Amino acid sequence: MEGVDTLIHARWVIPVEPSGSVLEDHGVAIRDGRILAVAGNDELRGSYRADTQHDLGEHVLIPGLINAHTHTAMTLLRGMADDLPLMTWLTEHIWPAEQRWVSEAFVRDGSTLAMGEMLRGGVTCFNDMYFYPEVTGEAARQVGMRAQLGMIVIGVPSGYAQSLDEYLEKGLALHERFRDEPLVRTLFAPHSPYTVDDGFLGRIGEHAERLDVPVHIHVQETADEVQQSLRETGKRPLQRLEEVGLISPRLLAVHATQLEQTEIERLAAAGAHVLHCPEANLKLASGFCPAAALTRAGVNVALGTDGVASNNDLDLIGEMRTAALLAKAVSGDAAALPAEQALAMVTINAARAFGLEEEIGSIEPGKSADLTAISLADLNQHPIYNPLSQLVYAANRQHVTDVWVAGEPRVRDGQLTTLDPAETIARAEQWRERIAADRAQ
Ligand SMILES: [Zn+2]
Fold first, then answer.
1. How far apart are CA 29 and CA 200, in angstroms?
2. Are 368 and 125 in contact (CB under 8 A)?
3. pLDDT tens, residue by residue, 308-360
4. Which residues have C-beta within 8 Å of that of residue 261, sequence separation ≥ 6?
5. Which of 77, 170, 371, 387 could form a disulfide with 309 if both were Cys (CB 3.0 to 4.6 A apart)?
6. Which long-range contacts (CB under 8 A, 24 or more apart) does 324-331 make?
7. Separation of 141 CA from ligand 1 center, angstroms?
8. Residue 272 Cα, ligand 1 centroid: separation in angstroms?
């Protein structure tokens, strides 16, 4: 009998790779934070002796979910300004509130709230674009969550930085600071082609090449954005990114709701990735990312929630269902974006976008033990013909019971292990009181 740290015996394991596979009466052996074996429960019991054992007889075990695009600290602005088009929402509500309130304390409390919500909903990793990313990184380290921190660059002065150069400088310092942190990675996050000029985007591309990191940018989110770019430069935003060398396997294009067929083909040929945020696009009436057409063309598509101020939650299980349903409606094809593809978009596809496909995104020996267990015991989960279909079309995040990051339990029986929800909520409500009182004046 070989010694391991943890054995998880599940009713089903959905490893994601190979796609569509559902293993019944299977489990996982974990040692030193990594998946040592995926096998039948009897075989695991016969081969390994574990310090900790979990019997999850009514559960499906999946890879930890990856939120490919968010702005975690904005969770403090949940519900502050709803039912508005993107530019009104951004310029009249969000940017003024951020100018007034965003600080290190705001980012710490907002991103901690977001991490609690995400972990509780089965999310083990997120990709963030926001001010004071070092504060979010420290919070992630404390909570024990995997984070991709954006080296944010935006042509709007803030308490964090005043100029494009200062943003870039702080980003490079961030990269140095977290370079040896096992769960935290950094990547470039220029906000958009309408807030960062083409010359500067080109410079960011050169730094990305040098540091070997992705470039994460909002692009072609709305028809207005494309029209404005055409008016001012005679070019579509993606064409401008092309001219400064950003259309490459490093590109993580967020939203991309306004795509022409030639642009889809170009993204596919370049090996670029699209980060699709269906609920934020629906809520802001931004348009529809052609997720099924992109996937058919060979573009890697991953899902994000976007910030809570435009979603209004960080629920990737819900986002996965929305993406599947929306793709069918947009393409007029009920077979578009089937359940296994929707699940891939919140796991292995996201891992691939960040260059982490050898580390996370599927349940395979050698990968980090980032795992999520979801109970299928509830009335609304029965009968169970197909656990994968149930997960995408009938489960919700309230059914998440246990979550591990690198083999460490972060949610046990529905309870967060590394942060205190009551304290986190109290801090969020203190912010709400101050912000609401200020807005009422
Ligand atoms: Zn965003």
1. 48
2. no
3. 999 999 999 999 999 999 999 999 999 999 999 999 999 999 999 999 999 99
4. none
5. 77
6. 324/392, 324/393, 326/278, 326/282, 326/288, 326/291, 327/291, 327/292, 328/292, 330/288, 330/290, 330/291, 330/292, 331/290, 331/292, 331/293
7. 23
8. 18
- For residue 438 the two structure tokens come to 């200020």
Identify the bridge partners of residue 251 per DSSP, sorted by sequence position: 215
Instruction: Report CA(130)–ligand 1 centroid distance (Å).
Output: 9
**Beta bridge mates, 178:** none
Instruction: Identify the CA nearest to 51 among candidates 14, 110, 2.
Output: 2
306 Cα–ligand 1 center, Å = 5
Predicted TM-score (pTM) above 0.85: yes
Number of neighbouring beta carbons within 10 Å of residue 199 = 9
Q: Which residue has the tokens 């009436």?
A: 285
For residues 195 and 286, what is the distance between their CA atoms, to the nearest angstrom?
A: 18
Going from the Cα of 274 to the center of ligand 1, the distance in angstroms, rounded, reads: 13
379 CA to centre of ligand 1 in angstroms: 36
Task: Record the tokens describing residue 365, joined without a space.
Answer: 């020996």
Joined tokens for residue 364: 């395979």
- Average pLDDT of the chain? 97
Contact in structure between 31 and 365 (CB atoms under 8 Å): no
What distance in Å separates the CA atoms of residue 280 and residue 315, rounded to the nearest whole number?
12
